Amino acid sequence: MEGIVVKSTGSWISVRLPDGNRVDCKLKGQFRMQDIKHTNPVAIGDRVEIEHAGADSHGMITQIRQRDNYIIRKSKNLSKISHIIAANLDHAYLIVTLAQPQTSNGFIDRFLVTAAGYYIPASLIFNKIDIYTPDLLSILDELTGIYEQCGYPCYRVSATRGDGVAKIRELLKGRISLFSGHSGAGKSALIKAINPALNPRIGRLSETHQKGMHTTTFAEMLELQDDGFIVDTPGIKEFGLIDFEKSEIHRCFPEMDRLLPQCQYKNCTHTHEPGCAVKGGIDTGAVSSLRYNSYLSILNDR
Fold it and tell me: 248 and 117 in contact (C-beta within 8 Å)?
């Protein structure tokens, strides 16, 4: 049988069959050490083949189909090992909040670079607009202007009040979409607003640090009423890039990639070379200084 991985708790992997039924499966031993670069050989969204004897029995994953794409980050405790967040995605959405908690520009850009590096279209959803002060709304206008100029669609929503939820619901139809962001950014609340039949756990903020407290323990693919799926991920504190060479980073900044042909040198790193169109673009407004600083920060981590 063929199916798609919709949940993995480490011990058990839940596979959704084409008829909508789910089978709890184990992973065949040969896959456990097949690729030690990743902490999880099977990821949410993987298309797999299983052996299954029938009702009330567990299955065995015998084959993992080649992935169209996947999104990864550094494992929390092992800097040289990566964790596959999800595979075979149609779109990736980062849930961003400017307060309670605040999402940094560096976090946003590292997420977008990773999505671009693995050929996953990405957008930003700015949540909690109902609590934004006039100053925060002004910052929101600035940020949406920056990222939309780069080619990233930006959406403003309030999961609690309902603003913008219908638009997001429409975008998700018939697609496999990833929702990611910090704990407390409102991923679970937004999912429930999109589809009230779902009941993801909704967390609260730490009053001391105004940071999200983890509620989603494992990533899970949730089935929507309108023929679509959301991959709900645990809250992420940091987004560490892995498997990127320095020479590849600027290619994942669309506004910089567009200017590369205008640089004096074909292999321009946009750091010290004369005649760099990207550095010149900062003066003209074609490149945001915020984005450029994120680029330099990522380069320094390589």
Answer: yes
- For the whole model, what pTM was predicted? 0.88
Any idea which residue has 């020479």 for tokens?
247
Helix, strand, coil tally for the chain in percent (to 5): 30, 25, 45
Partners of 141 in the beta sheet? none
Q: Which domains does the chain have, with CATH numbers?
A: 2-64 (2.40.50.140), 70-232 (3.40.50.300), 246-301 (1.10.40.50)
* Spatial contact of 157 and 129, defined as CB atoms under 8 Å apart: yes
Q: Which runs of consecutive H residues, i.e. helices, occur in 118-218?
A: 134-150, 165-172, 187-194
Tokens of 286: 């074609």
Phi (first) and psi of residue 29, to 5 degrees: -55, -35
188 C-beta neighbours (distance < 10 Å), count: 24
**Using one digit for the tens of pLDDT, what is the confidence trace for 67-81?**
999 988 765 554 556
Distance CA 21, CA 214 (A): 29
